[in-house]
């Protein structure tokens, strides 16, 4: 048997550009490198349009990369063919953000959950039914729910079905693309619990994409902060919250409203909006909004460098 | 002078749809003082927006109907006001900021035209005067004047919401209703918009009803909070009292289902079950099927708001004295 490395997903210098008619190139993901370890939850945070979902989509093969590589258990997934491609497709799955548009409204839950099995192998009807029932039991879906159609279910139940579908082929790695963003708080907690329980039981690895810092903080061991297609800071969760180094991370952490009453925060209010990722200017991408911007920031793009063990940051200030 | 700027008494609202009658608001009682900031918190379908729309008489017609209750604004009975007088209040003394800034602005008019309209209607200004005022108010919310001639699609989400705020505060309203004003925005932009709202509120001494599902925002922006569940206020009090010492089991559940500092990678404590269907609401306390300590009484009798402490009340029999 092949010895499995500790790194399950290795992303190296990944780029994804989109051509925009008459405007130029949209740099959605612009040179991202990181590795995800087996059994961990890696949180990926950033604001809308920063490229976090695009990374997820490239990993599962829903988008093809412009440059760079992603390897799964040591082998590139983009050059995958035949049997290996089949394995990769099974072992890497995704849970989508919006459980309203990610389930086919014309199929009932039984059919939705049968689909992954049908694609992978020719099962006979009885085995298929049994497989779906096992899956439902694993994710605590009622038997009665199996006969229902998506429109009969609320957001939380639908997302559970999205998760069950991702689990059908016994994946090792799941991209969770904002799985709780569209849910109410009390339902959100149910889904987060389900994800954590399943991880424990099945030894899953998650890439957890979210813009909600409190959720990411709760579920992740390590966190990558993205801004305009680049990772600006990467650290273990406690370290990142205790000692944020990048000005953007600091602003992001201070901007989140808190329940602690009377907490006096020196809130950093960023001026302006996130600039357009179409034909981005040279230099640090955050510099137009950064209150500590220096002349060098506008000329030279900072590299993501390790400052202390496991804590990397891309900023000229932190030297 | 009245003590309260706004008083809602036993408001009930129904939506008549093809599937049946949805009871969206089931007896809401609320008071709002002058220059007070009240947070109205609840989950999807709790009746937050319906309550707000009833105040402005903007319920979708003919489905939405107020079946019972009264709403007083500075002593005037809003629900029985003639249409013409109501028009004079809307956008003038009472105005609203909507959740989605992309759909609340008209895409075929420039933002200058849209903001000017408020001045033309309520203050009888000419087009040119109104334009000038629109330019000024736009600068108040931090958008340069020269963008008056642009259309909504040329603005980013945060900027659009600023435009929404500008037209809402144009006539210096006494009551501003903000319905999830930052839900569609990113955190850093949300911080900008909230700061702007806070500044304006202090500057113009506006009263605010802030509708949101984000408890953190309420904790920062408001002095009092009302928690709404299945169309009823189930807890009311000062921010400090309610968040530090929640009384109702729903509020407790809501607070404990939030991930917070120090609870990393542990299981959260969600509220069991789901929101009741507004077409088949349970009898008695609307929360009893999900409540961890429901008694037989809760199944049959509906609790009113009982006092918990001086400035804190909850709709739960636990607090009924005697």
- The assigned structural class of chain A equals alpha/beta
Strand content of chain B: 15-25%
What is the string of helix and strand elements of chain B?
A: EEEHEEHEHHHHEHEHEEHHHEE
Major sheet attributes of chain B? 8 strands, mixed
Number of strands of chain A: 12
What is the molecular shape of chain A? Answer: globular
Q: Uncertain regions of chain B: pLDDT < 50 for 5+ in a row?
A: none
Textual characterization of the structure:
- The complex is a heterodimer of chains A (319) and B (322).
- With 319 residues, chain A is of the alpha/beta class.
- Chain A has a domain at 246-319.
- Helix content of chain A is 32%, strand content 24%.
- Chain A contains ten helices and twelve strands.
- An eight-stranded mixed beta sheet of chain A has the order 6-7-8-3-9-10-12-11, sandwiched between helices. Chain A has a four-stranded antiparallel beta sheet with strand order 2-1-4-5.
- In chain A, helix 6 links the parallel strand 7 and strand 8 (205-210).
- Mean pLDDT of chain A is 90; it is low at 1-5.
- Chain B has 322 residues and is α/β, with parallel strands linked by helices.
- Chain B has a domain at 249-322.
- Chain B has helices at 48-55, 83-89, 101-104, 111-123, 127-140, 157-169, 187-204, 215-221, 239-244, 249-256, 296-300; strands at residues 4-17, 20-33, 37-41, 64-73, 76-77, 94-97, 175-179, 207-212, 224-229, 232-238, 306-309, 312-314.
- In chain B, strand 11 (306-309) and strand 12 form a beta hairpin.
- In chain B, helix 4 crosses helix 5 (127-140), helix 5 (127-140) crosses helix 6 and helix 6 (157-169) runs parallel beside helix 7 (187-204).
- The longest helix of chain B has 18 residues, at 187-204.
- Chain B is globular, with a radius of gyration of 21 Å.
- The A-B interface holds A 47-48, 154-156, 184-190, 192-193, 196-197, 211, 213-215, 217-219, 221, 237-238, 251-252, 254-262, 267, 269-271, 273-274 and B 43-44, 156, 158-159, 186-192, 194-195, 213-217, 219-220, 239-240, 243-244, 253-255, 257-261, 263-265, 267-271, 274-275.
